[in-house]
C-alpha cells in the first residue's frame, strides 16, 4: 500500500468533507460506533451529527400524533437533506437540537464543516439526495432481542423511562421501523450485525461477535492476504451472496477468542488498514469506558480506512 | 394601467417568492410597516421574517462580548444569507428564533416560502449575496430623536427594560449603528423618513409626515399624473438629487392635513397603485390598533404596488 500516515489529510485538493452515514433503529449502537471513530480522528478533524436532532415534534407534542420519531413525517427530513447538501459542499449550517434527556427541541447550534463528518441516526439515509451526500454508509442491524436489551438498559438509565415505557415504545415503533428504518439497510455499503454466535454458550461478559457485509458498492479493502488462517483465527472472510443475490464479502469477527489472539488480529488489521507506523488508537473498540470489544474495534478500523483512504 | 386585481397572483410562471427587505436601526418602525403589508396580503400569501432572529448570542451571553446585536459578528450573517438564498429559490428553511421578551435563543421554526416574503431587521441588507435575494429594499431612516423616543416607549413597555437601560443601549450601539446599520441606506431602493415637518407646531397626536426617496434602482411607479395639485394637497412629488448626486424622486406625504383631504389622497393613490375596483385594505396606515397615519398608508401602498406589480 502507498504511504499513508494516520494523520494524512483528506482536505488538500478537495475541500469537501468526507461523509459517513451510520443508520439503524433506536439502540443499535450508532453512537458507540461513532464515538470511537470521532475520538480516533480527533475533534479538530471530525464532527459528528445526530440526524435525530431533526425531530419535528418534542416529546409532549408527539403524544397526540399518529406516528413515532421513526416516521419521516415526525422529522424535518427535507431540512436534514438540505443541511447534508450544504455540509457536503463545505458550507456551515444552523442545526436544530433535540435534547434526549428532556425530550425537548432547543436552541439550534452552528456546525462548521470539517474534514470528516459522521451523521448517525434513525433516518440519515432515507432520502435519495441525502444518500448522495455520503461517501460511505453503514447500517447497524443487530438481532432484535439484542437491540431490545440495549434499549431498555439505555432508556431506563440516561433517558429516564421505565422498562414498561420502553417496551411500549418498541411495540409502537415496530411497523414504522419495518417501513422506514429497515429499508435503509439495502442502501448501505456496509451492514454490521453485532450478535452472539448461535449454538455457543459463552460466559456472561463475552463480547458479541460481528458479522459485516462488505458490499461492492464502494471499493472495499482487500483483506484476503491478512486473513490467512496463520495470521488470525479471530477473523474469517468468505464470499457470500447478498439478500438480493449479488456477490458480497462476509466478514466474521469472533468475540470469544482470548485477549492474546484478539490483540494479534487487531494488530494485523491495523497494520493493513490503518497506519503501520503507529499503534491503533486506544479509543477503538470501547463499548464503554471499561469494556473493550475486538469485533467493534475491527469494524471501526474498516470504517476509518474508508474515511482516510477511500476513493472520493 | 393593465388589468390588475388586488388578488393577482405573482406565483404563476415564476414560482420564486417576491422578496422585500426592510432594514433600519432599532425602533425605526420596521415591524409597523411590515405588519400592515403582511395583513394586506394575508397570511396565505405572505410571510414575514425578522433578521434579528439570527442573533448569535442571547442577552446573558452578550454581557461579556465586545459588541452589541448591531454588529454583524453578533449575528449568524452567513446563515441568514444562506437562508435568504434558499427562500429566494423557493425552498423551506429551519429559521432560528430569538425571543425579544426573554432575550433568549429558542427552538427554531420551519418557514415555508410563500408568494411574498418580507424580511425586516437590523442587517438584512448587510451582505451582497443577501441583497441579491431581494426584489425591493427599504431603509427606514427617521431623525435620531424620533427613533430614541420610539425605542424608549417600546423597550420599557414590551421588552421590560428601564429608561436608563435603553439609553445606555442606544449609547453603546452608536458607533456600530454608524458602521454597519446606516450604510445599508445606500443600497435601498426606497428610503423612508417619518418625521415632523420643521418649523410647524402641530398639536400632539398629529401623525408624522413621511419623506420617501424613490430611487431609480428599480422601476418606480409614475406618480406625476395623480399628484397634480388639484388631485391632492397631502402629497408632493419633486425631482431631487440623492446624497451621491444621482437623480431621485422625492415624495412628501404630509401628516397634518384634515381627515377629508387625507382620504382623498389615499383614494387617489390606491386607485393608481392598488386596485381601483376595491377599497384600500383597512390595515394600511395603522400605527397602532387605534391610530391611523396617512403617510404610513401611502408608504405601504407604494411598497404593495412594487410587491404586486413590480417587474421581476
Description:
2 copies of one chain form a homodimer. Chain A has 8 helices and 10 strands. Chain A has 312 residues and is an alpha/beta fold. Chain A has a domain of 124 residues. In chain A, strand 9 and strand 10 form a beta hairpin. Chain A is globular and about 60 Å long. The N terminus of chain A is likely disordered.
Radius of gyration of chain A, whole Å: 19 Å
Name the overall outline of chain A: globular
Number of helices of chain A: 8
What's the helix-strand series of chain A?
EHEHHEEEHEHHEEEEHH
Total count of strands of chain A? 10
As an assembly, this protein is: homodimer
Q: How far apart are the first and last residues' alpha carbons of chain A, in Å?
A: 17 Å
Largest interface: A-B, 17 and 17 residues
What level of helicity do the residues of chain A show?
25-40%
